[in-house]
């Protein structure tokens, strides 16, 4: 196959990139390894992690269209109560983690709707389920990528003038010989206050295999996992208790805190204040990432709330799953851990009434679209990251460092984002690192590899550090990065210029930023304070 733009990886960044390039009239091939497009929002099962002003500003127009589309889908197709239907900022799950907690299948439907006219017009070909297995290069250019079908012996070679890596782990970087980094950089490299003295490339954030559950009558206990005893007794040094308990470190203070768990509280969905400035929302784990609040729907429509389990106890940090020979084995162990957490919840978890176990908890693989009941794909927080023309460091956005000055303003800003520097426990034995952040910008230099000319990152693989990845890895930023990468590929094709030339030529940069602004990309924040 041949196209103007090849986008490898169909997560949020990949979909945004493909959509931007196709809207510009380019022929696009988009690939995805799993059954659903949407990555962390869908196949990984993670409700959107967003900042406190997301309903007003701080996202691209197309990301806002995605969010509005999700709400409209519920209003058109779901039996909402009249009160919830009239709720302007409808939060279907009334979860505390996000103002838009929802079932992943709805996001899949809306993403497919956005892409549908371009597929119909023949501008967009979606190869699914395919993953990259090889690449060809000529000097500093990628000339082709070989894709293998996940389930059968079938390979496709795709060539394109521009190749965008939107995979969850930066798979194209080693395949193309593109220079990249993993894990912690050292303070000597970055000067970051939260970095270790020396680089630790194999020290990466935990991965998690999420799953959805509800709570109904009957005993829905799964078979006891083979490794259950190991995980039940697993006690990391910094955890304060066994990992399978209600006690764990508070991410911001590292104080050992006890969380509660009350299935199906009879709460009012409209009373939920999903604002991370006010409350992290993880006090009651049931409502933390709830994706369907039964009180949003007419009586009898839902027998139970549905909640998404992405809690501290499912974080797998025994080993990285990038650049290790046994990555598949460790991903299987991460799934084992998630099953063990579910079994513990059903059989041994302490209840408020003094008993143990919640046998009414039911695994909802139908909600996550998987045969084994868990999310289709692991939640990968940290990717390989390009060695970029500009690398974002902690000092650029740390609230403690920048204070009232706010985050660094980049002359080549191509978007905005906001999230605390939020790092989960890592494979090197580190506890949470959680640092206040200023609303920040996305520099174009972080999307430009130091050497390669036609390969662009379109997800979490941009030029951040291990530390700043904690802020730049979330849903709206990944979408913004992908959208800009797609727009940049189109701009370079139209002008016959390279991405590097666009960044380093004031005239070209001005023309490109005008182009993305017209497309609805916000480049600057209004005057607001971080948290």
TrEMBL record:
One of its GO terms (biological process) is NAD+ biosynthetic process. It holds the Pfam family FAD_oxidored. InterPro entries: FAD/NAD-bd_sf, NadB. SUPFAM superfamilies: FAD/NAD(P)-binding domain. GO terms for molecular function: L-aspartate oxidase activity. This is FAD-dependent oxidoreductase. It comes from Micromonospora radicis.
